[in-house]
Amino acid sequence: MRITGIVERAVGLDHGGKGPANALVNFSSHTVSLVALITDEHRNGKPVVGVAFDSIGRFAQSGILRDRMIPRVLNAAPDALLDESGGIDPAAVLACALRDEKPGGHGDRAAAAAALELACWDLAAKLADEPAYATIARRFGRNSAPQVPVYAAGGYYYGGSTAGSVAALRDEMRGYLDLGYDAVKMKIGGAPMRDDLARVEAVIDTVGDGRRVAVDANGRFDRAAATDWAAALAPYGLRWYEEPGDPLDFECNRAVTACYDGAVATGENLFSVPDVTNLVRYGGMRPERDIFQMDAGLSYGLTEYVRMLDVLETHGFDRRFAFPHGGHLINLHIAAGLGLGGCESYPGVFQPFGGYSAGCALHEGTITPTDAPGFGLEQKAGLAELITDLI
To answer: Among residues 187, 328, 333, 380, which one is catalytic?
Structure first.
């Protein structure tokens, strides 16, 4: 087997004319790298192609991929990219893409490499004619769990008004319940505390139980504000309080977990095994309570992500408390294949990447992926057309 070509396209996110914002970032101009890895294997007269993308919430990595990583992979000795069975080895492709890169300072290259590495998993599953979660489970000695608990992530700020419309927020959350979700997440930190707490109360009232509502500050607060918010949120009995401070400020995270009895969630912006190691050493994370949200699409792909899970388990944490950030099909298959606690979903934002394909069955807060080979990206409305144009 040989890789004969790799193509990448930066794709703008479609927000239906409304640019969502969290406490720090407006996503109106954000893009995602869509990558196709073309091989000399053929099915039905067409080459078998692995497709993936980096994660949502940062930017496309066209320059890093075009100038550094794709040429390294295409110029490699073909046999150097194969595993013992003769198939493309995701870990070998990742190592090749990162050749001559210094350690540390992970940043955007972690997402660029992830898009390439994840495309290898899509390819492997397509060659095995099975959904990616089955390939992932077999490769890592797991029993796949195709029914994955999911929650709907939304509650962004719109239209330049940080307070936003509470009525519109209620309508949004009712819409997620109508779709079959039984838990939701909303943004905080983009409005004065009084206004944001009114938004939180409105969502709890709409959903019916604080335990079904998570809040996300997206790293907005310093230590003083993060702990003040912890005190303000404590009476609501929330599902979790997410990323109160800068993702690398482990002392801030520890201060929050020391004063907040509810669950704290973090990790989506950690890009490497050393980052996660430092989180569990110094961040005050509590087993059987706090949530880890590392995202393979932001952290060198599935190879590195599995090593992150190994770190968690070595330090006494349960992988059922891992809920990958990202809200899309790739992470749905990863959660199913690795037996994680669940997965985020973006049913209303970040199209065409957010959310799942129409064939994915949503029932009482769980989603079952389809049996389409690979990640099933070709079944996702809007994304399918982009993939056809790409290859």
So the answer is: 187
Range of the domain at 198: 140-380
Closest CA to 196 of 254, 137, 238: 238
- Verify that 152 and 199 share a domain, yes or no: yes
Under 8 Å CB-to-CB from 222, ≥6 apart: which residues? 245, 252
Tell me if 242 is assigned to a ligand binding site.
yes
Give the type of residue at 279: L
268 is known to lie in a ligand binding site: yes
167 and 307, same domain (yes or no):
yes
- Indicate which CATH number applies to the domain containing 41: 3.30.390.10
Model pTM score: 0.96
- In sequence order, what E strands does 191-313 have? 213-216, 240-242, 264-266, 291-292
Choosing from 325, 328, 333, 380, which is the catalytic residue? 325
pLDDT in tens, the chain (391 residues): 999 999 999 999 987 767 799 999 999 899 999 999 999 999 999 999 999 999 998 899 999 999 999 999 999 999 999 999 999 999 999 999 999 999 998 999 999 999 999 999 999 999 999 999 999 999 999 988 889 999 999 999 987 554 458 999 999 999 999 999 999 999 999 999 999 999 999 999 999 999 999 999 999 999 999 999 999 999 999 999 999 999 999 999 999 999 999 999 999 999 999 999 999 999 999 999 999 999 999 999 999 999 999 999 999 999 999 999 999 999 999 999 999 999 999 998 999 999 999 999 898 899 999 999 999 999 999 999 999 999 8
| 15 classed as catalytic | no
Q: Would residue 102 show up in a list of annotated catalytic residues for this protein?
A: no
Please state, as a whole number, how many other Cβ atoms lie within 10 Å of the Cβ of residue 128: 15
